[in-house]
Amino acid sequence: MQLTRCNSNLKVVSTLKPEETDIEVSRINFFDFLPEELFLLLAGYLELRTLGDFRLVCRKFNVIGSDASLIQALFKARFPILSGFYTQKEMTKELYRKAFSLEKNIHNSDFRPEKTVFQTIAFGGIRSLALSEGVLYSKHFSFPDKDILAWDLNGTQLNRFKTKCTSGWMGITKNYIFTPLPNNRPCYNALRRIRKSDKESIEWEFPEAGFWGFKAIDESIFIGSRLGFFEIDAESGLKREYLGDSAEPFFADRNQVLGTNRSSIISWDRETQEIKEVSPIDTHGSDDNLNWDFSVHAYHDDTGRIFLAGDRSGLISYDLRQRRMISMTSIHKARVSGIVFYNNEIITAGLDSIFKIWDVRGLTSLNNDPNPIRSFKIGFPINTLCSEGSSLFIGTRTIYKYDFSKEEPN
Question: Is this entry keyworded Iron (predicted)?
């Protein structure tokens, strides 16, 4: 069938009213469940005489939209990235409404998200941010008393934890805060654990370890060793060693631990601590902006999609299931310092003082030159970022919170 665009300027709208059917209709407009591109295409081709048939289609979609059992399927189809972070039970109509509203605001270039500036100044810059149990934690390069600060999500300081280390590294679990202990060696081999509830601390030494940074994943701390890396239980301090290659872990579940080195993504078996699979990353022939020392990661377990950045301005998108590189693009004018998933997009930040919002679907080719949905200029280089719900937290000399569910007042 060949479609011919109509010349009518009439807008296509549904005239179906809930009282015209015996079925209780969801308050979600049925158009929300259609890909917006499809709706825009059809609206340009429908003649006035076809609205009768289109009205029947509207009725059918309203019936589908009112079926709560289909919400999960519809949510995954419309928001494939976002749905990967929620259980089936959590994917409700209310969550769908919020996600759709947030998506609309993100793509609206005239929408100004609400911005909150936290009342803190870190003279050397904020090195890291982390979220745990609804609290935001910040660690600074050279805060005068080397503290880790705890904040509520609206910028009120809740607590302060003393540390001995001037580095910006920290790890947050449910009950504890971890920092490296300074020594006379070029790298660290000890951790300090601070209990959140009463600030009581203990120190754990690992003579065979040697790490510059570390990663907290759930209730485990991952640190480097001479022959691989250690997994440290946050409660007991017991360690398990993963052998075979030096790597930086970035994801762990019950079955595997994923990590990267300069040339590959490596999967270890969580039970045996042995390497399961090595997926090479070939950056041969790339320009200087795509030379890698992978230290920034974002992983989507549902799709097997990994976003990687290193010590330059580029971004790699990799499909772990097909073991192939999807795209390799220079996206900032300075080193990429952070990558997070936000709603159904990803956000990157760099030392060029800019954070950018990207449609994941645009990062699909080794030869493409994608454009961001939105870009925001901050006054200082961005060192780190994290997100929770509709809130995006940016770490520069201070902390900025952007909320795309609310508009900045005039």
Answer: no
